[in-house]
Amino acid sequence: MALTNMRLRLGTIAGLLLGLCGNTGAAAPTGADPVPVVEVSGLSDPAERSYRSLLKGMKLFEQYHQRAPQASLRFKLLHHVSDPGRKTISLTILGKRKPIPLALDDELAFVLPVDQALADDGARVVANRLTRNLLWQTEVRTPGLPNGTRRLGDLRLECNVSIVGFVSDFPLTPGNIALSLMDNPCGRSGVMYPFLSDRPLFGVTLVSGQRRQTIASDMLFGSGMDSFVTKLVYTGKDWSFLRDRAYRLPLWDDSWPDDTLVEFEYMEDQAATAAICKEACQ
Question: What is the pTM of this model?
Fold first, then answer.
């Protein structure tokens, strides 16, 4: 597909939705502090997303919610380490009507109001940051899982929402059009979608009942960053500092059911274990 050399003008799709599940609530909860309208007039290339694209992703989540029946969907922003003003990041919906400010929580996640009229108006969700300084993420997560784990069905749906929901933000190349017509692009073995863990990774293991499989090192640490799907995620600026958090999974392998747990071992845990062993051996 002709995505390898494409520059994503609007930031990233990955791997990206605060308790949405088709949430139709207001942009800011009742009683919350007022959110200032985003001022982007001074930015030549503000980070933004098509409202229609985000809404499409939300609808896809609802359509295939059975893959993650207890999960919620949310959108999140990830700011670049060179940007010290994390607390000053803000979002607004800009269209033909009055601007709608969006509330960001402490994780820079936000709830998107559902309004087909905004999609019909060609509205955009715009940040007060340049494109290269923000990544846009989708997150599908089931509550109540053991610490340090994710659910494979959640990640399958997360990948599909990200790719199908955001592909219309890209140039209308044959490859992009083909992706937009797929309900399950992440079920194809050629699609190697990179996820981001919360912390630097040491290892990843799939667990289903008594079956366990350690993910090979060539699926971790940003390996294969030149694949076309990865180009949709890491672009516009040097985001290589995230490589130690990046991992890929065999989402297409149906021998692993949706309830499979993805277990993470973190670098900091290994360092702590090594320190304890060293002290015990002295």
Answer: 0.75
Residue 252: partners with Cβ closer than 8 Å, 6 or more residues away? 186, 187, 188, 189, 191
Alpha-carbon span 33 to 11, nearest angstrom: 28
Cβ 158 vs Cβ 15: under 8 Å = yes
Q: DSSP alpha helices (H): ranges in 167-214?
A: 174-180
- What's the chain's length in residues? 282
H or E segment and range at residue 267: helix 267-281
Closest CA to 152 of 137, 141, 144: 141
Let me know if 249 is exposed, middle or buried by CB neighbors in 10 A (0-12, 13-18, 19+): buried
Amino acid in position 183: D
Largest CA distance in the chain: 70
- pLDDT by residue for the chain (282 residues), tens digit each? 333 333 333 233 333 222 222 333 333 334 444 444 444 445 667 888 899 989 988 999 999 999 999 999 999 998 887 777 778 899 999 999 899 999 999 999 998 899 999 999 999 999 998 887 888 889 999 999 999 999 999 999 999 888 877 765 555 678 767 776 777 888 888 777 889 898 999 999 999 999 999 999 988 987 765 554 455 455 555 667 778 888 999 999 999 999 999 999 999 876 555 554 455 555
Hunting for tokens 């699926």 — which residue is that? 219
What is the Cα–Cα distance from 15 to 195, expressed in whole angstroms?
5
Question: Which are the contacts of 280, defined by CB distance < 8 A and separation ≥ 6?
Answer: none
Could you state, in order of their start, the residue ranges of all structural domains in the chain? Answer: 46-281
Transcribe 20-76 into DSSP letters.
Answer: -TT----SS-TTPPP-PPP--TT-SSEEEEEHHHHHHHHHHHHHTGGGSTT-EEEEE
